[in-house]
Amino acid sequence: MKAKLGCWDPGAESGEGLGSGPGSLRPMFVRAWNATIAALVVAAIIVQIVIAIGVNGTPHDVSVGLLRGSSLPGRIMRVLSFFTIQSNLLCGIVSAQLAAKPSRDGAAWRAFRLAALFGITVTGIVYSTVLARIHEPHGTAETAVNTLVHYIVPIMMVVGWLAFGPRPRIKVATVLWSLMFPVLWFAYTLTRGAIWKWYPYPFVDVASHGYPRVVGNALIVTVVFAVLAWLFAQGDPRLPATPTAPAQFAPPG
User: Fold this and answer.
1) What ranges do the domains of the chain cover?
2) pLDDT per residue over 220-242, tens digit each?
3) Closest Cα to residue 30, out of 151, 149, 162?
4) Nearest residue to 78 (alpha-carbon basis) of 206, 204, 199
């Protein structure tokens, strides 16, 4: 809405004014940034599934973290069972929603976005500081996927939140509900492991550690997620709020 011209701007409600100033480019850049994240996630997961299809299904193998040694549906389920993949999926979903509507909001959406943020942050930090030294991707495809899900998407998600928000979007209830993501992932992982005897990571391997230690590991990791969620919550009101849309109609006169 251009108040000084007294005309209606069809982009005003979504915050996409038609002005020629630098601010008019912001929604376009936000959409492009988030659309890029969503596209990278889709590409990485498709390639990872193709890799899983190509590995051997026999002999049966339940070694921790391996894709091979299962049926085709089983190998695809193994791919989708990694926290890295699930956190990237969550990032892809919320980023696609922001690409469609940069001012996206809602209580459930806030929790999903926060879960995506702390989930992908842990993914990036743990891999780059610990797992990168012991994990060796083989071939161009594996290296590309590894770079996308462990480095590029985590960095783009955090930078996007810092630069564009949307803010404010995090309250105490948002933090509490967002923690359902790791809790449900642990519940799924232990249930699936009890049935198929396969675990994605050593720290949740009940066959090696037993339930008491694995549950203890899960509690510790959940506390880490809670601390990260709290840090995002602390930054939310302190960082610049997302620009609001201008008024839809000019005052008379």
Assistant:
1) 23-235
2) 999 999 999 999 999 999 999 88
3) 162
4) 199
